[in-house]
Amino acid sequence: MDRIAKLASQKAVVIFSKSSCCMCHAIKRLFYEQGVSPMILELDEESRGQEMEWALMRLGCNPSVPAVFIGGKFVGSANTVMTLHVNGSLKKMLKDAGAMWL
């Protein structure tokens, strides 16, 4: 859990992902299209990826990926992020975290 918190606070937007996950790809794409350059951690390519995946599940992220952190705080998975995008509050969160300026 400490490792997750440390990694999540390294950049304004951090996404824990798996390279083979289609929803992870969609969420990464969403952030890129917003002009955000998130830190991406592909758990299937990390040496301690399985350990991090279990920690994410303990945080309440089920499925474990994609897990999105904005401003060091856990936001949720694909469903939550898409809801925030559709209702317009994702942009404000990104601006508040310093991930985007416009």
UniProtKB/TrEMBL annotation:
It holds the Pfam family Glutaredoxin. Its main location: cytoplasm. Keywords: Cytoplasm, Redox-active center. Residues 13-75 form the Glutaredoxin domain. It comes from the Eukaryota. The keyword Hydrolase does not apply. PROSITE patterns: GLUTAREDOXIN_2. It is found in: Cytoplasm. One of its GO terms (cellular component) is cytoplasm. InterPro entries: GlrX-like_pln_2, Glutaredoxin, Glutaredoxin_subgr, Thioredoxin-like_sf. The keyword Disulfide bond does not apply. PANTHER family: GLUTAREDOXIN. Belongs to the glutaredoxin family. CC-type subfamily. This is Glutaredoxin domain-containing protein. It comes from Coffea canephora.
